[in-house]
Amino acid sequence: MTIAEVQLPCSDLTPALDFFVGRLGFRVETIFPADDPQVASLSGHGLRLRLAPGVGDPGHIRIAVPELPAEPELVAPNGARVEYVLADPPYVLPPLVPEFLVTRAADSEGAGEGRAGMLYRDLIPGRLGGRFIASHIEIPDGGPVADWVHFHKIRFQMIFCRRGWARLVYEDQGEPFLLSVGDCVLQPPRIRHRVLEASDGLEVVEIGCPALHETLADHDMVLPTGRLRPDRDFEGQVFLRHIAADVRWLPHEGFERRDTGMADATAGLADAFTLRPTGRTDRLDVAPHAGEFLFGFLLDGSAVLERAGDHTLGPADAFVIPAGEPWALRDASPDLQLLQVILPAA
Asked: Do 277 and 255 form a contact (C-beta atoms < 8 A)?
C-alpha cells in the first residue's frame, strides 16, 4: 500500500512529540536515529505527518470533531496551527440584502466552467448578500456527464429544464429518469444524487439558498438504491419531480399558470410556477410581495418589465424584485413563458 505523508519542519522533536502524541493523540509510526531522534512519522485523525528538520511553513492542521473543545485552536511547538472544526457544520444563512436586478443574456461576458464541465452563467451577481444564487447552466455537447454521487448542505435548491434533457438519479427515488423541457426537480437538503447523461444543448436554471454551500461526495452510496420512498423526509422537505406534460395550465389574472407542487414539497418554504399569456391580455400586474425572494426567468418570448422604469426582456433574461414593490409585465409576446420562484411560498 502506498502511503503519503505531509512533512512539517521541526527543529526540536521531543516537545513536538509530547504535543502531537501526548496531547492530540497521534501515534508514532517511525522514528530515527535511535541515539538522537530527529525525524518521526506520526499517524492519527486520518492523517500521516512527518516531522523533520527543515525550513518553511510550519503547517495548518484541521481536525474534524463532533463537538468543539474548550480550546478550538492550538499552536504546536514547531509552530504548526492546529484547528478543531465541526465534522458536520451546518450551512450559514447570511442576512438578506435586497436588490432590484435585471440580468440580460445579451450582456453576459460568457459562462464560466463549473463542476463536471458544466457552463455557468450567474443570474444574481450580487447574490443578495450571499443569501441566494441563480445560475443558467449549459452542457453544449451531450453524452455521459463526469459527475459522481454527491449531496448539498442547503436550505433550498431546485433545477428547471429549459432546453434538451438530462438523465438523473436520486437517493430512494427509484430508477434514473429524464428531466425534459419544462420539468423541474426539488433537491431537498442532503439527498444524494447524480447527473448521468445529458443531451446536446442542455440548459437548466438552478436556484439555491444560501449562495455559498458545500457540495460533498458520497463515495459509499450506489445509485439507484433500489428503494422508492417518495415521502421520505429530508430536513422537512420531500423530493419533487415535476413533469410539465402531466400538469394542466390554470387561469391566473388574464394569463395561465402551471404549478410545480413546490410549495407542498417544501412545506411552504418556496413556490415555483410558470406563466404564459392566453391572448386575452398581454399585461400582468403583480402586487407587492412580503417575502425575501422573487425571481423571474424568461424561458421564451419577450416582455417589458415595469418597475422604476421600463426594462425590455428577452429569452434567458432574469430579474429579482425586492419585497414591498409592485411590478408588471406588459407587451408580452404570444410565446412568452416565465419561470417564477418565490420564497416563502405566498
From this structure: yes
Q: What is the mean pLDDT of residues 273-287?
A: 94
Of 297, 254, 257, nearest to 274 by C-alpha is: 257
- Cell numbers for 5, please give them: 505523508
Q: Is residue 344 reached through a cis peptide bond, with omega within 30 degrees of 0 on the bond before it?
A: yes
- Triad 264, 191, 233: Cα angle to 5°: 45
Segment 1-19 shows an average pLDDT of 93
- Which residue range(s) make up the domain with 322? 246-343
Q: Are residues 280 and 209 in the same domain?
A: no
In this structure, are strands 73-75 and 81-86 parallel, antiparallel, or unpaired? antiparallel
The neighbour count for residue 326, using CB atoms within 10 Å, is: 12
**Is 100 inside any structural domain?**
no
- How far apart are alpha carbons 75 and 61 in whole angstroms? 10
- Separation between Cα atoms, residue 109 and residue 106, nearest integer Å: 8
In this structure, are 212 and 153 located in the same domain? yes
Query: In this structure, are 128 and 79 located in the same domain?
Result: no
Which 3 state secondary structure label does DSSP give 211? coil
Average pLDDT value for residue range 279-291: 93
Residues 295 and 227 placed together within one structural domain of the fold: no
Closest to 197 measured CA to CA, from 169, 163, 158, 225: 169
CATH number at residue 310: 2.60.120.10
185 phi, psi to nearest 5 deg: -130, 145
Return d(Cα 310, Cα 115) in angstroms, integer.
36
pTM: 0.90
Determine the pLDDT at residue 154.
97
- Among 196, 231, 266, give the residue marking a domain's end: 231
Q: Does residue 214 share a domain with residue 271?
A: no
Q: pLDDT tens digits for 92-137?
A: 999 999 999 999 998 876 555 555 567 899 999 999 999 999 999 9
Within-domain flag for 80: yes
- What is the pLDDT of the chain when averaged over all its residues? 95
The grid coordinates of residue 181 equal: 423541457
Q: For the segment 19-58, what is each residue's pLDDT rounded down to a tens digit?
A: 999 999 999 999 999 899 999 999 999 999 999 999 899 9
Q: Is residue 114 domain-shared with residue 215, that is, in the same domain?
A: yes
